[in-house]
Amino acid sequence: MTTKLQVQVSDYKKFPDDELVYRYVNLHDNTAINYIYERYGHLVFGVCLKYLKNADAAKDTTQQIFIKMLDDLNRFHINNFKPWLLKVTRNTCLMQLRSKNNGANNTVELGPDMEFEQDMHQKIEQEEKLNNLQTALAQLNEDQKTCIELFYLHKLTYAEIVQKTEYTLMQVKSHIQNGKRNLKIKIETLQGMGQ
Q1: Per-residue exposure over 91-117, b if at least 16 CB sit within 10 Å of its own CB, e if not
Q2: Which residues lie closer than 8 Å to 150 by C-beta, 6 or more apart?
Q3: I need a surface site. Which of 112, 119, 133, 167 has the fewest CB within 10 A?
């Protein structure tokens, strides 16, 4: 592992997840956490948005997850950071949905085990689709990835994307159209590979 003194700011983007986690936990390097957030903030927000169906709730939950993560990283030894973070995100969202449903529904339901199993089966299928989407999204070129995320995850208009990225309107439309096509191809490939 690299020592804190030898690190240039540009090196953080190149560090693998376990290096960033190591630097935060063992060297008390808060810059490492900033790069973890930069790397995974949009991904966590996307998962939260898929489950919670509300941008404000997704933003709040994303913040809660990253705040809790700071404590968890110091308490637990985490080997595979990204799968762990996605699992924490999914579980946090499911707990919120469960508590919301419990608060809204005080009547006794028949067959809770069957409903729970069916619900979990659907959630697993949704999660597999979401994982494929996230993997495929990460494989897009930067221009397509940026435009797809801004348009679909952040719900920006073409004009807002032009303003935010300084792409032309034609470039934004092209990146979104090509990105959608490439996503579809990559997702189909991942499904064919059983990932």
Answers
A1: ebbeebeeeeeeeeeeeeeeeeeeeee
A2: 156, 160, 161, 164, 165
A3: 112
Q: Whole-angstrom Cα distance, residue 40 to residue 126?
A: 20
Residue listed under structure tokens 């697993």: 124
The answer to whether the CB of 36 falls within 8 A of the CB of 21 is: yes
Domains in the chain and their CATH numbers? 1-105 (1.10.1740.10), 115-195 (1.10.10.10)
Look-up of token digits 């994982």: 131
pLDDT digits (tens, 9 = 90+) for 153-184: 888 899 999 999 989 999 999 999 999 998 88
Q: What are phi and psi of 52, to 5 degrees?
A: -90, -20
**pTM of the shown model:** 0.50
Rounded Cα distance between 93 and 102, Å, is: 14
Q: Cα separation of 190 and 138, whole Å?
A: 13
* C-alpha angle 125-94-109 in degrees, rounded to nearest 5: 90
